[in-house]
Give the backbone structure.
Amino acid sequence: MAWIQHDYDKVPGTYVFNGRRSVMGYPLNRMCMSFNHAENREAFRRDEEAYCEQYGLTPEQREAVRHRDVLRLVQLGGNIYYLAKFAGIFGLNVQDVGAQQRGMRVEDFKAMLEKSGDAPHG
Amino acid sequence: MAKIIGGVTTSHIPAIGAAIAKGVQQTPYWKPFFDGYAPVRAWLDEVKPDVAVVIYNDHGLSFFLDQIPTFAVGAAEEYPNEDSGWGLEVLPPVHGDIELSWHLIESLVAAEFDITICQQMKVDHGFMVPMMTMWPEATTWPVRAVPIAVNTVQHPVPSAARCYKLGKALGRAIESYPEDLKVVVFGTGGMSHQLQGERAGFINKTFDTMFMQSLVDDPEALTRLSNADLVEQAGSEGIELIMWLAMRGAMTHPVSVVHRHYHIPVSNTAAGVLVLQN
C-alpha cells in the first residue's frame, strides 16, 4: 500500500484535502458535520470528551480539539470547511482561525489581508 | 427557445451574507465591496432573467464526505437553505424549474457528463450568498433556479479544462430548451484565498487580475492551469475559480463585459465580480 505524491505537495503551509487526509480525518469531519444542528452543538458543549468519544476521534485529534488547535486538526485530516463549524461553536470566524494557524494576532492578520490589496503578491 | 442573457461570476464568501443580514453594507469596511454590485443589480433589473443556473460548491450541508459527487444537478421543486453551523441566517427556499432541470440533465448526460441527479438538494452559502448579493431587498426570490454543485472540497476535484467543457455542454443544453426563457448563469466562488495551514491569508492580486482578464479574452489559456497551479497561485480554497470557467464555457466567444469589479479583502478573500454578455 502506498499513497501517491502530488504536484501540490510542494506548496508550503498547505494541506490539500486529498484521499489520504480525508481517510485520516473522517471521524473528526463527521463530528463537525453534526454541528450543523444546534442541539448537537449544545451536546458537544455539555460534554466534549463524551462527544469526541462517540465519533471515534483519535487521541491526537481529541487533544487538538481540547486545545482548539485548528492547524493541528488540519494536519490530522480535518477539512477547513468542516472545522469552521467546530470553530463557530467558540465564536471564532475564518479570520480568527487564519490568524491562529499562521501564528499571528488577529489584528495583524487582518492588516496583512488589507495590505495584500496594495502589493502585487499577498 | 431559452436564451442565455448573460453570465455573472461572483465570490460567495459567507461574511457577505452576514454583512447583508446585519445591514452594515455602508460601513467603511464593506462599502467598497457592495458598491461593486450596484451595476450588477441594475443590469439584472434591466434584463430580468427568469431562471438562474447557479454553479457553486457545497461546504457540508447537502453533501458530506461519505458521498461526494463531482458534478451534481438539482431537479427539485425547491431548494431549502438550512443551518450549516456557520452562524448565518437561514433564508427562504429558492424555487426550481423541474422541466428545465431534467432537460439539462438529459443534455449533459448525452454529452458524456456523468452527473449526479438530485431531487432533493439543500443549498448553503455557496449558492445563497450570490442570490442575496444580487437581490438583497427581495422578499421573494425573483428567479427560479437550477443549482449545479461542483466538488471543490475533496481532491481530486475536476480540472479547469473539465469545468470549461462542462460549461460548453451546459450552454448548448440551455439554448436547446424549447421554452422562451431568459437564463443567467452564475459562476461562484473565489477569487484567491486560503483558509487553511500556515499559508492561511494568502491572496494573489496579480494572479486574480490576470485570471479576470483571461476569462474574458482567452479562457482557453486558463484551461491549461492544473489544479496544482491553482492551489499554488490562487490558494487552496481559491481552487473554486474552476467554477468561473464553467460559467465562461456556457457563453460565446467573444463576449462583451458589462461590468467588472475587484476588491481586497472581504474576510480572508479577494472578491471579484464580472458580468458578461454574449
User: Anything to note?
Assistant: Chain A touches chain B through 52 residues (CB under 8 Å). DSSP finds eight helices and no strands in chain A. Chain A has two domains: 18-90, 92-122.
